[in-house]
């Protein structure tokens, strides 16, 4: 864990849900049900995802060059419902990790997803981190082929496993789903799309235990 001493670059404003990134330090704004707080270190820190937690606080994920051991690492920040800092952690290797989404799990822990070129067999691999309720690492997994693989969304499924959405490169970019068990071990992977680039940005399980995913499809060069 890291001590929290500097408040720079990483921030969000909320009326209980809205999140954005600030490039400089702001003071708190005195408006009803609204607050602005800035978090981070001396280098580049950027927020990418947020979820409200069971204790009515918030968990925020992103990428940090201030904390961790690489170029950028996964960054996990926990705050209370008034935006007060509770704890933070970082995950990754010696190269580059970018994190895009966070969800709280049934055990009050968190699942984070993104990509890494510190681990795996290719230039970039999908990278998933599972923590306990205090942000301590429980497991981390990388997924992918010999080319580039990116993930942008992960959430827990009814069987306590995980569904993960992103994109994978195989001559062209394809929409990509990964299903795992509760320990993050792969149960199956699926690719979608044709000769044009495609990718998924979000996925949810449906009541019939299927999945619905949203993303992009390139219908002509330069258009998605």
Structure explained in plain terms:
It contains no helices and 16 strands. It has 224 residues and is mostly beta strands. It has a four-stranded antiparallel beta sheet with strand order 3-4-5-6, with no helix packed on it.
Radius of gyration: 18 Å
- Helix and strand pattern: EEEEEEEEEEEEEEEE
- Could you report the average pLDDT, rounded to the nearest whole number? 85
Instruction: Please work out how many helical segments DSSP would assign.
Output: 0
Percentage beta strand = over 45%
Q: Give the beta-strand count.
A: 16
Shape label: globular
- Judged by helices, strands and strand pairing, the structural class is mainly beta
Which bin fits the share of residues in helices?
A: under 10%
Enumerate the strands of the largest sheet in spatial order, edge to edge or round the barrel: 3-4-5-6
Question: End-to-end span in angstroms?
Answer: 40 Å
Instruction: State the major sheet.
Output: 4 strands, antiparallel
Q: Provide the low-confidence segments as ranges.
A: 1-30
Q: What layout of secondary structure does this protein have?
A:
Elements: E1 10-14, E2 35-39, E3 45-52, E4 58-64, E5 73-79, E6 85-91, E7 97-104, E8 110-116, E9 125-131, E10 137-143, E11 149-156, E12 162-170, E13 172-180, E14 186-192, E15 198-205, E16 211-217
Features:
about 220 residues, mainly beta, 4-stranded antiparallel β-sheet, globular, disordered N terminus
Describe the structure concisely:
With 224 residues, this protein is an all-beta fold.
């Amino acid at each position: 864990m890291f001590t929290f001493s500097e408040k720079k670059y990483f921030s969000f404003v909320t009326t209980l849900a809205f999140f954005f990134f600030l490039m400089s330090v702001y003071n708190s704004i005195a408006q009803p049900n609204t607050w602005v707080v800035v978090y981070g270190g001396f280098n580049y820190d950027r927020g990418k995802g947020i979820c409200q937690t069971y204790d009515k606080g918030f968990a925020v994920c992103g990428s940090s060059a201030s904390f961790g051991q690489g170029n950028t690492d996964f960054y996990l920040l926990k705050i209370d419902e008034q935006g007060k800092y509770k704890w933070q952690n970082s995950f990754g290797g010696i190269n580059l990790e970018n994190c895009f989404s966070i969800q709280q799990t049934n055990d009050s822990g968190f699942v984070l997803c993104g990509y890494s070129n510190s681990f795996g067999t290719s230039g970039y691999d999908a990278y998933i981190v599972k923590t306990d309720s205090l942000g301590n690492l429980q497991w981390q997994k990388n997924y992918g082929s010999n080319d580039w693989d990116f993930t942008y969304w992960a959430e827990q499924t009814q069987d306590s496993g995980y569904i993960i959405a992103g994109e994978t490169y195989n001559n062209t970019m394809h929409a990509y789903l990964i299903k795992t068990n509760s320990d993050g071990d792969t149960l199956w992977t699926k690719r979608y799309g044709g000769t044009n680039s495609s990718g998924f940005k979000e996925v949810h399980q449906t009541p019939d235990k299927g999945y619905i995913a949203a993303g992009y499809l390139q219908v002509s060069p330069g258009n998605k």
